[in-house]
From TrEMBL:
Domain Major facilitator superfamily (MFS) profile: 1-380
The protein's name: MFS transporter
Entry-linked SUPFAM superfamilies: MFS general substrate transporter (SSF103473)
Top-level division of the source organism's lineage: Bacteria
Transmembrane feature ranges: 35-53, 65-83, 89-110, 122-141, 147-168, 204-225, 237-255, 262-283, 289-316, 328-348, 354-373
InterPro entries linked: MFS (IPR011701), MFS_dom (IPR020846), MFS_trans_sf (IPR036259)
Amino acid sequence: MVFAAACGLIVANIYYAQPLTGPIAASLGLAPRWAGIIVTVTQMGYCLGLLLIVPLGDLLENRGLVVWMTRAVAVALLVVAFATRPALFLVGMWLVGLLSVAVQVLVTFVTHLTPLAIRGRVVGSVMSGLMLGIMLARPLASLVAQLASWRAIFVLSATVMLGLSFLLRWSLPRHQSASTQGYGPLLVSMARLFATTRPLQRRAFYHACLFATFSLFWTVTPLLLSSPRFGVSQGGIALFALVGVAGAIAAPIAGRVADRGWIWSATLAAMALTALAFTLTWFVAPRFFIAALGLEGILIDFGVTTNLVLGQRVIFSLSAAYRARLNALYMAIFFLGGATGSALGGWAYASGGWERACMVGMALPALAFLACLTEAGGRRQTP
C-alpha cells in the first residue's frame, strides 16, 4: 500500500497542469497555440529522467535515492507555483517531470521484493495506485483551480511531497543493488540492452503508440469542453476527468491475466479497445455527446492501463541485474510517445477540430495492433 500510494502521489505531479493549460497560458502570457507545450515539456523532462536517473536504481541504494528525489521535486513544484514568466514556469515543469521518475525507481524496487509467480499481481496492484494518481490528478487540479487558483495545486503538492519523503524513509526497507559498474558504463550499457532485447523493443513501441493516444485524448478533451461549443467550467472539467478513475481497475486485472500467460491476446484486445473507443462520439446525438465522451475516456484509460501492466510484466521477467535499466528504457520510449501525442493532439484540434483529433487517436493504437500481429510465437508467450 505504501508503494502504491507513493507512486500515485508522485506521478500526479506531471499531470496537474494538463487540464489547466488554458488558465496557465493566459496567466503567463503564453500564446494559446503553445499551450500544449506545457504538457510536452513535462513529459520530455520525465523521459530524460528515465534515461539518466532511473538506471541509478541498479547502482545506488534505492530507498535513499527515492527519498531525496521526492524532496527535490517538492522544490521544483514551488518554482512552478511562484513562476511569473513562461520560461521559468517551463523550466520548473521540466524539473518536475525529471524528478518525478522516482515513481519508476519505486516500481522496480518492489519487483526485487516479489517472487516471479506473483510478480504480475503485485506490479498490477502498485500500478493501480499509480494510475489512480494519474486519473485523480486532473480533476483535483481543476477543482483546486476553481476554488483558489492554478498555482495552489502546486503548493499543495510540494507540501505533500515533503511529508511523503519522511514517510518513505521511515517505512521502506533498504535495497542495495549488487552492480559494481560505474555510472558511465551503466548508461552506455543501456544502448546495448535496447539493441539486443527484442521483447523490450516491441513492448516499448506498443505502449508508445497507446500512451500517445492517452495523452492526446486528455490534452484535447479539456480544450474541447471549455470551448464555446460546450462552455464547461474548470469545476465541470474536474468532474468529467473523474471518469478516468474507472480505468485504474484494469491494472490488477491485467496483472492476473499476465500471470496466466495470456499476454499476447490481452495486448491485442487492449489495442483494439483503445482504437475503437474513439468512434463512440461519431454516432450519438449532440445531447449525448458528453456522456459518450466520458465512456470513451473510460475505455481508453482501461486499454492503455492494461497494455502498460502487460508490458511491465514482460520487462520485469527479464534479468534482475539490469531490471531498472530495462524499465527506464521502456518508460522513456513510451513517454516520448506521450509527449508526441500531446503535441499532435494540440495540432490536430487546432487545425481540424475534434474529428481530426479522433482520427489521429485511432491511427496510433491501430499501428501498434498491426505490429503486434507480427509477433512470432505471440500466443505461446508466457514470461
